């Protein structure tokens, strides 16, 4: 797999398990990319939903995509602190077109005080039945929800404020 270059602007595409396009973020600047992680940043980027609806993000964000973990993390930098939106999804891949992953519906929202909330369990159950998620996949995702919660509690990686501050400073200096 080729990795994007630091400074390159890429698109991010999420898909559903059945291969349908779910959502596209038009522009994310690459801050780091290696065989384990792709870190990017964007600010007021256009997002296109599968139904064609378009909207623009409201704040700067640092994006964290792993090539091994079954989740990705969006660190949204707001006036009152850093909020996190974590998508349970396949490990990220990159090709000439975009960074890509499969979105598996479950999300975790993390607030500046480190409290968190698991979201979209009903949507996950519905899609699990409709798209016939294999039991092995269901077990992987449940394991990675717990891994993600451990990262939150231990302030690991993106959940450490220094991580967000350092990468945001680097992004602004580009």
Describe this structure in words.
- InterPro entries: DUF402, FomD-like_sf, Ntdp-like, SA1684.
- GO terms for molecular function: hydrolase activity; metal ion binding.
- This is DUF402 domain-containing protein.
- Keywords: Hydrolase, Magnesium, Metal-binding.
- It comes from Terrilactibacillus tamarindi.
- The structure is a single chain.
- The chain is built from three helices and eleven strands.
- The longest helix has 20 residues.
- With 174 residues, the chain is α+β, with helices and mostly antiparallel strands.
- The chain has a single domain, classed as FomD barrel-like fold, CATH 2.40.380.10.
- The chain has a seven-stranded mixed barrel with strand order 1-2-3-6-7-8-10.
List keywords for this structure.
FomD barrel-like fold; alpha+beta; 3 helices; 174 residues
Structural class: alpha+beta
Number of helices, counting only DSSP H or I runs of 4 residues or more? 3
| Beta-strand proportion | 35-45%
CATH topology: FomD barrel-like fold
Strand order of the largest sheet: 1-2-3-6-7-8-10
Shape category: globular
Q: Indicate the radius of gyration in whole angstroms.
A: 15 Å
CATH class label: Mainly Beta
The biggest beta sheet, please? Answer: 7 strands, mixed, barrel
Runs in which pLDDT lies below 50 for 5 or more consecutive residues are none
Protein name: DUF402 domain-containing protein
Keywords: Hydrolase, Magnesium, Metal-binding
GO molecular function: hydrolase activity; metal ion binding
InterPro entries: DUF402, FomD-like_sf, Ntdp-like, SA1684
